[in-house]
Amino acid sequence: MKLPIIITAFLFSLCLSAQDTGTLLLEQPDMNNSHITFIYGGDVWVVGIEGDGVANRITSTSAVESDPHFSPDGKSIAFTSNRTGDPSIYVVGIEGGDPTRLTYHPSGSFVRGWTNDGEYVYYASSRKSAPSRHFKLWQVNKDGGAEIQLTTQWAANAEYSPDGTSLVIDRVRRWDKEWRVYRGGQNTPISILNMTDMSEVLLPNNKTTDINPLWIKDKIYFLSDRDSTMNIWSYAIDSKKLEQITTYRGSDIKSMAGNDTQLVYERDGAFHLLKLGTNKSEQLRIEVKGDFPWAQKNWEDVSKSVSSVSLSSTGKRAIMQSRGEIFTVPTEYGDARNITNSSGAADRRPVWSPKGDKIAWFTDADGKGYVLRISSQDGMSGIKDISIGQSKLGWEPTWSPDGKYIAFNDDDVRVRLLNLATGKIETID
Prior knowledge:
The protein is mostly beta strands. The protein has no helices and 42 strands. The strands form twelve sheets. It has a four-stranded antiparallel sheet, with no helix packed on it. A four-stranded antiparallel sheet has the order 9-10-11-12, with no helix packed on it. A hairpin with a 5-residue loop joins strand 31 and strand 32. The chain is elongated and about 75 Å long.
């Protein structure tokens, strides 16, 4: 069966704004004493430290920017960008303008911070790490020049001590940062590296995921999942005492930054400001406003991402999914039809009934999890949603020959049987 090219229009917007929360999907905050810089929609933004305002857009490209870090004097921002191909280091003034490129090596370079005197930007790069690729720290002058290796120690992230004599280091770049409660070989202790004699002190770690270290005065703050959710912890340099700062359950804290008196952290797409000493947090309300050409409605060829094909009983049409939409396509003559046309929902794994009069697929259109949706073969009438019970998602739906049941695999590796008349569901294997 030769499929025609399927064209559909879609609109995807990252601007999830509400009166009480502001804009969500904010990422990778850094802060000084007056401002917060962050990533939204692949660009660098700046807002006042109290939030509750409209952020100023610093970069505006179709490239992906990341890792913004304020210089010690607060006048510049170093960030990572792939605007010229490989990820490289750039510096721009806090008011915006034309950034200056600092690194040119074909191996990617990822900003991690500034030296305390503000003369150098240091970054992680996998250059000179053959045969296996791992990050080490490098630095380059803020005005450009030779790129200098800073340490031979593995280091995916690091921050200088207040006196500049040591670095607190997270060694390993995690290949799947969303693997919750992971307890494998990527989990190495955060370490304090003495820059004079290269000796190390390891922070307590029992194979937990400890990341994002910050050195503030006489304490090291870091993110850890040692209570099964990624929360903020601290380690006192002198007493070697560990203390849990936040006690969230559910959503993880994704990243954080700080100054001498406060931390800003990212959770559920929003930023929260935590005052050290009281450990009390408040959510910041930040708005971003700008032109996002890449999020505008346009025509998209989705024929190359087609999957889950099911043939009608007559053999004249086939049903399939692509980019979260369900299509029926003629096997020879006719037009392709988008029968869901729901850019805000994920519609998956369609199957045609034995008689050809109905179709079924999994959808999360109601926002409460996946259900099995059944409709007439045109997808527009006789719509009925049936709960799939304890299952979070289903795969390989198969209609029984008599049209009374649908069997499917689920996320717990079970074979489930759904009675379409009664809605009763049972595990059969």
